[in-house]
Automatic annotation (TrEMBL):
<dbReference type="InterPro" id="IPR015712">
    <property type="entry name" value="DNA-dir_RNA_pol_su2"/>
</dbReference>
<protein>
    <recommendedName>
        <fullName>DNA-directed RNA polymerase</fullName>
        <ecNumber>2.7.7.6</ecNumber>
    </recommendedName>
</protein>
<keyword id="KW-0548">Nucleotidyltransferase</keyword>
<dbReference type="GO" id="GO:0003677">
    <property type="term" value="F:DNA binding"/>
</dbReference>
<feature type="domain" description="DNA-directed RNA polymerase subunit 2 hybrid-binding">
    <location>
        <begin position="55"/>
        <end position="141"/>
    </location>
</feature>
<keyword id="KW-0804">Transcription</keyword>
<dbReference type="InterPro" id="IPR037033">
    <property type="entry name" value="DNA-dir_RNAP_su2_hyb_sf"/>
</dbReference>
<dbReference type="GO" id="GO:0006351">
    <property type="term" value="P:DNA-templated transcription"/>
</dbReference>
<comment type="similarity">
    <text>Belongs to the RNA polymerase beta chain family.</text>
</comment>
<dbReference type="GO" id="GO:0000428">
    <property type="term" value="C:DNA-directed RNA polymerase complex"/>
</dbReference>
<keyword id="KW-0240">DNA-directed RNA polymerase</keyword>
<dbReference type="GO" id="GO:0003899">
    <property type="term" value="F:DNA-directed RNA polymerase activity"/>
</dbReference>
<dbReference type="GO" id="GO:0032549">
    <property type="term" value="F:ribonucleoside binding"/>
</dbReference>
<dbReference type="InterPro" id="IPR007120">
    <property type="entry name" value="DNA-dir_RNAP_su2_dom"/>
</dbReference>
<dbReference type="Pfam" id="PF00562">
    <property type="entry name" value="RNA_pol_Rpb2_6"/>
</dbReference>
<keyword id="KW-0808">Transferase</keyword>
Length: 156
């Protein structure tokens, strides 16, 4: 029976160390209710929860409020990574190390909707304002840019 008890105690130690590690990871964030939930769940749910985290820990951040540098550094330390977040890369052809460490990760690029094709506008003749006799303003009114007295003097 001592062998079974030792196995049971080692499992208990493994569960408690896993629970402690997850609490330490989630205490980096601002939502501490997750830590309370991790303390309260039973061992089977704890293992299931840890299994779902095997590909990474989902993190949410409010808009325009990223995580603090200290929180990121603490997560790097818990993951056993360098505090800079950079890793050593090797040349795929020669197998040599690069001179410096490199930041690796995802970067999202979006297409800008304000393209030149939608902005360009030209006018030779068109409508004028009745009061000032200057060209109307704006592309939608087929307007133009007034070439006034100061502009004429600037060209001379």
């Amino acid at each position: 029976t001592t062998l079974v008890e030792n196995y049971f105690n080692s499992c208990k130690d493994a569960h408690s160390s896993l629970r402690h590690f997850l609490i330490e990871v989630y205490s980096c964030g601002s939502n501490l209710s997750i830590c309370n939930n991790i303390r309260d769940i039973n061992d089977n749910h704890l293992i299931e929860f840890a299994y779902k985290l095997r590909d990474g820990i989902p993190v949410t951040a409010p808009v325009f409020e990223g995580p603090k540098d200290e929180q990121i550094v603490k997560l790097f330390e818990l993951a056993g990574l360098d505090n800079s977040g950079q890793v050593v890369l090797y040349d795929g052809c020669s197998g040599e190390k690069f001179d410096r460490k490199v930041t690796v990760g995802y970067m999202y690029m979006l297409k800008l909707h304000h393209l030149v094709d939608g902005k360009i506008h030209a006018r030779s003749v068109g409508p004028y304002s009745l009061v000032t006799q200057q060209p109307l303003g704006g592309k939608s009114h087929f307007g133009g840019q007034r070439f006034g007295e100061m502009e004429c003097w600037a060209l001379q």
